Amino acid sequence: MTEPTPEAVDTFLSELVARDDEALIRARRASDEAGLPSIAVSAPHGKFLRVLARTLGARRILEIGTLGGYSTIWLAGGLAPGGRLVTLEYSPKHAEVARANLARAGLAEFVEVRVGPALETLPALAADEPFDLVFVDADKAPYAQYLDWAVRLTRPGGLVVADNVVRQGRVLDPGEDEAVRGVRAYLEAMADDPRLEGTVLQTVGAKGWDGLAVAVRL
User: Strand, helix or coil at 34?
Assistant: First the structure.
């Protein structure tokens, strides 16, 4: 037997419990062909998001950071019948790729992609029905601001999940790195917010050493 690696285990788990269907395969391919950065969630993490959505019986999901729509497709697969997902994307190019991927997946009717800086598009959601699940996976510097909006927009009992919060362990000493300082601020805000009870799961695999923050809205 060859020496096991986190990457090999991720491949095994992906094939066993989180195999990409045709829509997910085509979404990855289209994103690569369009030159989007290869920073989408791994398949097991995507499946984890879908399981969370199903557990909640989620009718409304918010995603902050669409990229090519790979994680969006996973999340949308966990929506309850009649549910809807709103995903926010800064880049018009990324949004165009995501919309095409979502259409091919048969999800265009249930998923809305809103384009623009999230801190400008989030306030418009305040008048709508609250969300059951919010997934944050966007630019890291304003992560703490995204958390505040996520809490405002989530119903009691709903979940707020954020990706990339360990950053290869650099969260211990952010220095002048704005991205790491942003996720450190997110974790500190989550820990201090009386509206939340949360924790962090360190992750290792094809995406390296990182972590997911998961909090329930009290």
Answer: coil
Distance CA 45, CA 24 (A): 13
Mean pLDDT of 80-98: 98
Residue 3 binned pLDDT confidence (cut-offs 50, 70, 90): confident
Predicted local confidence at residue 1, as pLDDT: 62
Q: What is the DSSP letter of 108?
A: T
- Domain residue extents for the chain: 6-217
DSSP state of 117: -
Nearest Cα to Cα of residue 62 among 141, 149, 163, 139: 149
- State how far the Cα of 62 lies from the Cα of 158, in Å rounded to an integer: 11
Rounded to 5 degrees, φ, ψ at 65 are 110, 100
Calculate ∠ Cα 100-103-105, nearest 5°.
110
Cα(33)–Cα(56) distance, rounded to whole angstroms?
35
Between 3.40.50.880, 3.40.50.150, 3.40.50.2300, 3.40.50.12160, what CATH number should domain 6-217 receive? Answer: 3.40.50.150
Phi, psi of 44 (to 5 degrees): -60, -35
